[in-house]
Known about the structure:
- The chain is an alpha+beta fold and 380 residues long.
- It contains 16 helices and 13 strands.
Amino acid sequence: MRTDRTKASMDSGAAESAVMGTRALNRALLARQMLLHRVKLSPLEAIEQLVGLQAQSPHAPYYALWARLEAFRPEELSLLIENRSAVRLALMRSTLHLVSAKDCLELRPWGQTVHERGLQGAFGKRLAGLDLQEVAAVARELVEDEPQTLAALGKRLQLRWPDRDPAALSAAVRASLPLVQMPPRGLWGMSGQAVHTTAEAWLGEPLAACPDAHAIVQRYLAAFGPASVKDIQAWSGLTRMADAVNALRPQLITFRDEQGCELFDLPDAPRPAANGEVPIRFLGEFDNMLLSYADRSRIMDEAYRKRVITDNGIVRSTVLIGGFVGGLWRIERGKQKATLVIELFKPLSEQETIELVEEGQRLLSFAVPDAGQRELVIEG
């Protein structure tokens, strides 16, 4: 349903777009991220609707789906990974994501230049003069014959190129080939080294020859919009996205944020009222919403950024209060007891505290169902 303001902006054809304030952008984001209320979708449907989930932490996707789906059970996602319906690999921004098999084949070639640019920035000098296509071809044979860790792969490649750093060689392979992490890595309640093979070998299908860049941008807007060109670039890691957005402009509507930045959106995407009530939600580490914008103000006050995102790039587990990041959480586990520790950034009302405790208890029941004793501690 379009708001009156959206319809007016479409019908008038006015040169100046309507302004969306921070709260309006926040409510639009929460609606698209399934955080206004839990929804009835299968885990695979949700993963595709969100264009993948951040997966630097093996269990992060499980918390992401728990916060968004009704009656989500972690074994549902583990099964998707085991039966190859979903895979973990480096995608947007060259960071680990969990995506459907279909999206793996489409998104990986679309973002190839991101991986190449990152490789040159980190290892360019150590790889100078090396035929990276030859390295990739040798590595493909190795990992498709016997899946292995990047460390082991680097050492095996060094036998062929003894004057090269094994870490640089394995990084070159990660940038050149679509390496998926095989289970048990990424399964709920299990551990294991990240062992890799190629997406083609694991899925039995080739990568998309011509990824539909325009469709991918539209999917981003469906999950994260309204958004600016810089936001799309921050999410994808790609540059020069203005050309793709301008090609889509006739199919999009535009807004301005309070700083005057142009925002693009799909005409029929949800944009709820800015003053609507929102539930308290616990988000896991590396949640997509905190990493998918150049301007994060619609979800987190800049004053809290350093408390949430560490110097070494860890994105801590957060609590949404009133729709915005309002605290951090962690679970401390002992032999018989599990404690949910919540660190608040500001005081809560009595009603907010009640809701926080109720949702926190649900989180403990999900995360540590077998704990003999569960406790919740609020700090700050």
